[in-house]
Amino acid sequence: YIVPYEGELPGDPSRTAGIVPVQFGAEVVRYRIEGNKALEVVSEGPKSREEAALLAREPAYGNLAELGLGVLSAFGGKPIGEILLDEKLGLHLAFGRSDHFGGQVGPKDFSGPEAVIHIDRVYVPETQPDVKVVSVDLQMGDGTSVPLMRDGAYSVGF
Fold first, then answer.
1. What 3-state DSSP class applies to 123?
2. Residue 146 CB-density burial (10 A; 0-12 exposed, 13-18 middle, 19+ buried)
3. pTM exceeding 0.70
4. CA dihedral over 74, 75, 76, 81, signed as positive or negative
5. 56 phi/psi in degrees, rounded to 5
C-alpha cells in the first residue's frame, strides 16, 4: 500500500484525479476526484445522495488515503467480509484518514473524533460485481507514468 501524494508541498499540488466508482449493493456511486480529494458525487440514486451529503458534511472523508495492491485473488482467495483480509485480494482504495500510514490527513481534519474514518473499498468481482477497473496509472516523482492496471488486471509484473 501507499498513501497517494496529498499535495502537501507548497506549489506542488496532487495530480490524483479521475472518476472513482464504488458499488454499494445494486448502486454504483461515482466520485469525481481532483487534487486527491473526492469533490463531488456525479451519480444519481439514494446511496449517491447519502455519500454526497457525507462529503459536504465531512470533507476529510473525501481524502484518497490509500492505494493498495492485493494479489491473493490470483491464488484463489475469496472475500470473507473482513476488510483487513479482503483488501489483500486485489486493488483497494481507501477514503479518509491517512496519517497513520504516513499521510497528511488525520483526526484534526475531521469535525470530531466520532467522524474520523479510514474506509477501504476493495475492487474484486465478489465485492463490486458491476465495477471493473479500466485503468490505473502511477505518476512517479520524476514525471514518468507507469501503467499499473488495464482492464481489471495488473499490467506490471510482481
1. coil
2. exposed
3. yes
4. negative
5. -65, -40
Q: How many CB atoms lie within 10 A of CB 81?
A: 7
Which of 1, 4, 39, 3 has the alpha carbon at shortest distance from 19? 39
The DSSP bridge partners found for residue 41 are 31
Phi, psi for 28 (deg, rounded to 5)? -105, 115
Which pLDDT tens digit goes with each residue over 58-86?
Answer: 999 999 999 999 999 889 999 999 999 99
Amino acid at 104: Q
- CA–CA distances in Å: residue 132 to residues 8, 20, 127, 150: 31, 11, 11, 10
Q: Strand order of the sheet with strand 18-24?
A: 18-24, 27-34, 37-41
Chain-centre distance of CA 117, in angstroms?
13
